[in-house]
Design a protein that fits this description.
- The protein is mainly alpha-helical.
- The chain has one domain.
- The chain has helices spanning 8-21, 27-64, 67-70, 85-104, 109-136, 159-180, 185-208, 215-237, and strands spanning 140-142, 156-158.
- Strands 1-2 form a two-stranded antiparallel sheet.
- The longest helix has 38 residues, at 27-64.
Length: 238
Amino acid sequence: MFNSGIFLPVIIITGIAYSILAKKLTVLAALTGGIIACFVYIAAGYAGVAMMSMFFIMASAATSWKKHKKQAFAIREETKSGRSVLQVLANAGAAGISGVVILFYPQFAYLMFLALAAAFASATADTLSSELGMVYGKRFFNIISFRPDRCGMDGVISMEGTLIGIGGSCIIAAIYALGYGWDMNFYIIVIAGTVGNLTDSILGAVLERKGIIGNDLVNFLNTLTAVLVVLILEGILD
């Protein structure tokens, strides 16, 4: 029963309804997320959907946690109706592309399963480190200059936030391991997710602060970086 798609419509409809009613996503963004979830399921089964769902749950919880405190030093791009289609694609687009590759080139399934997990690990790490780092971080510094900087600014990180981000990558990696087995891939996913997260901060400090690129592109590039890290590490290990 669990190998069939019988539960998929319930999961997707529930996720879409909650996203809209709780104003986490706009209607169009929620529908876009549902379509991506379908591709993820077709490519990676329930393990893939579980990774995507866990990312969404943790990201939503982290964004809402002590929101009043974070408003003092950060302006979020989330509207009163929720995050937009572009924000959904920025966070889940790389994973969706990995799923499409699996569909058309099944011979690369093993590698792209890892890439899909790494993309969600990076997106999770980025969201948790930024949202919870603002709450629990003690000292903040610019990732390029390593000088003290203002909390909430692009490219600013804290030790606490970085460690929380690594923890988020570990959770996604654990879901992958439960679905496909515990081996070295767990560590590859965590490494890729962490590198993607740090790349997000570097891009934020170097390009986003200067208005050269926006936050959505930064988020997409950090997940794409995680995918590339997987491809590189797998190439080295093989």
